[in-house]
Specification:
Layout lengths: L6 E4 L9 E4 L10 H7 L5 E4 L16 H15 L4 E6 L1 H13 L3 E7 L8 H17 L2 H11 L6 H13 L2 H12 L5 H5 L5 E6 L7 H10 L3 E6 L6 H4 L1 H18 L1
Parallel strand pairs: 2-3, 2-4, 4-5, 5-6, 6-7
Antiparallel strand pairs: 1-3
Helix pairs in contact: 2-3, 4-7, 5-6
Length: about 260
């Protein structure tokens, strides 16, 4: 059977380089990774799915826990014949990457966590995510997108980047975004998972990120035994789009290291 998720799959199927799986954040889609797909698919296989409820993937109303997202990804990778890979996730995608690490970490050869954090949701945070889910269902995505645009990317970001990010947010189905918000509210504590990671890890954060500040990245770096923290200047929550050359440089160096140890 074909996989549940829509996805981009580019690059050579047979290569000595480890495939790269890219997991987008909320409320975006796989085009969030366009600069990375363009940069790395000439040398390795790059897979960028739309998570359940986002982009062109089907919507599941209600609550979609991170375990469901991880199951979707395992099914997709099995369908594509990808046994081992590097997982890279940003924000919510980073937390789903940690869920995958917990569930099938024996397949992961490297872990990239960008602008994310591992701690569970606080009671206040749970209430906030549930309230936001209700709001998106009632009002749609545009008002939210207008409000958060200049936190997702820095106020000084390129106008084309702002337009891309705003377009992704407004195109996201409210039902899909709400379902993942409810699932995200109930996510577990991933800090014990990180302490058990035995593969190399790259932690990336925008210097001006106010959602997941540099201190969060430093905490992740302290939790993962073999990790490097890279701070991208001139970027907020989406450094892969705001400063793609800097982000790609850090990712390239990391991927080459993983290739050498795989």
């Amino acid at each position: 059977m074909p996989p549940y998720l829509s996805y981009t799959d580019k690059g050579p199927e047979i290569s000595h380089r480890v495939p790269l799986l890219l997991l987008h954040g909320h409320p975006f889609d796989r085009t969030m990774w366009d600069p990375q797909v363009a940069r790395f698919s000439s040398e390795r296989r790059v897979i960028a799915p739309d998570l359940r409820g986002y982009g062109a993937s089907p919507v599941t109303p209600g609550t979609v826990p991170f375990a469901r997202h991880a199951d979707d990804l395992a099914e997709l990778l099995d369908f594509l014949g990808v046994d081992t890979f590097v997982t890279a996730g940003l924000s919510m995608g980073g937390q789903i990457a940690m869920e995958c690490q917990d569930r099938f970490g024996d397949r992961v050869r490297g872990l990239v966590l960008a602008d994310t954090f591992a701690a569970p949701e606080t009671p206040e945070g749970k209430r906030g995510r549930r309230a936001m889910a209700d709001r998106l269902l009632a009002e749609g995505m545009r008002g939210y997108a207008d409000e958060v645009l200049e936190r997702m990317v820095a106020p000084y970001a390129d106008a084309r980047v702002k337009a891309h990010v705003h377009g992704m947010m407004t195109a996201t189905p409210p039902e899909g975004a709400a379902a993942s918000l409810r699932g995200r509210a109930e996510r577990p504590d991933y800090r014990p998972v990180l302490s058990r990671v035995t593969v190399p890890a790259l932690i990336v954060v925008g210097a001006d990120d106010t959602y997941t500040p540099v201190s969060d990245a430093e905490s992740l770096g302290a939790a993962v035994p073999d990790s490097v923290v890279e701070v991208v200047e001139g970027a907020a929550h989406l450094p892969n789009l705001e400063r793609p050359e800097e982000f790609n440089h850090a990712l390239r160096d990391f991927l080459l290291r993983v290739d050498g140890t795989a």
